[in-house]
Amino acid sequence: MSDFKVRDSEVSLLIAIATDLKPDEDNFEQWADSPFGWLKLGIPPARKGKISEEIVARYFAEKGFDVVKSPDREADRIIENVRVEIKFSTLWENGISKFQQLRDQNYNIAICLGISPFDAHCWVLPKETIMCNWGNVPGLGGQHGGSDATDTAWLEVCPTRVHDWLSPYGGTLSQAIEVFASLITKSPKPEPIIPARR
């Protein structure tokens, strides 16, 4: 393993949680020196989704939040009595994270966790923000059927060049925790975001 140093203690905590959930088989070729490498390749998408939900659930529990499984399939977890949808992406070759399958389901907040070889990023978005701005802001558009798609959205984020509208919703793990804490205390009713003209 290469000599790397994770400087962010929050990323170190996430690495510890992810490592605890790591399966026995290590059949990945890329990200070979990354502590997150096993998540990149070799795990079927459905299993990867379950593992990523558990990573986020354990991380939020470690940060002092009450976390339980959702009683239905409309949300992934209940965190502090708030229905939460969890989305996960490893960094793609083009340098973006892509959080897929965002739908109008029965949840209040979407937590989007992105993993890079030696870093992690996280955004916490009220469902209303996603629904109000779908197709109207950079990076948030229809997943199936192009920009006119109305059933499923995805969020594309370049961690090194985050869209201005997304910045208030997190970035680092610590910022995401702060955003989540503020959202659950004030029950926001966000207005649509009007993108700046170019």
Compute the separation of the termini in Å: 45 Å
| Averaged pLDDT | 85
| Quantity of strands, as a count | 9
Low-confidence stretches: none
Largest sheet, spatial ordering of strands? 1-2-3-5-6-9
N-to-C series of helices and strands: HHHEEEEEEHEEEH
Number of helices: 5
Outline:
The chain is an alpha+beta fold and 198 residues long.
Question: How would you characterize the overall build of this protein?
Answer:
The protein is of the alpha+beta class. It is 28% helix and 24% strand. The chain has five helices and nine strands; from the N terminus they run αααββββββαβββα. It has a six-stranded mixed beta sheet with strand order 1-2-3-5-6-9. Strands 4-8-7 form a three-stranded antiparallel beta sheet, with no helix packed on it. Strand 2 (77-79) and strand 3 form a beta hairpin. Helix 1 (9-20) crosses helix 3 (45-62). The protein is globular and about 40 Å long. It starts with 8 loop residues before the first helix and ends in a 12-residue tail after the last helix. The mean pLDDT is 85.
